[in-house]
Amino acid sequence: GFMTRDERKLFDDLKSPHLKYWVPFVWFGNLASKARKEGRIRDSVDLQTLMNEMNKYRSWCSLLFGYDWVGIPLVYTQVVTLAVYTFFLACLIGRQFLDTDQGYQGHDLDVYIPVFTLLQFFFYAGWLKV
Description:
Layout: H1 5-13, H2 23-38, H3 44-69, H4 74-94, H5 115-129
Pfam family, one: Bestrophin
Subcellular location: Cell membrane; Membrane
Main location: membrane
């Protein structure tokens, strides 16, 4: 709904190895210049303001395109994976409550399932996969 059928055909026929987000901006610039020549835009200051705002928006689109183009390096995901598993291992060992040096009667081994540590690990591992 943003383009006419003729504009869509022109847009689709344009060959470019990259995204074509910039084409409507060029069209806008040409139409604004034409409107100035025809007197629909009264003075050059208004045209300059329009073009400055359009250029700002185009630079934001270009920045967004750059973020999309450059992927997150694989090393970051590997570092996060290592950090999650190391944190889980440290929690598993560090959250044991029994001090074996005290020699508590009937408590030779602290065997329990660390439910909250497991839940925390599942959440972190799940977020890592996302």
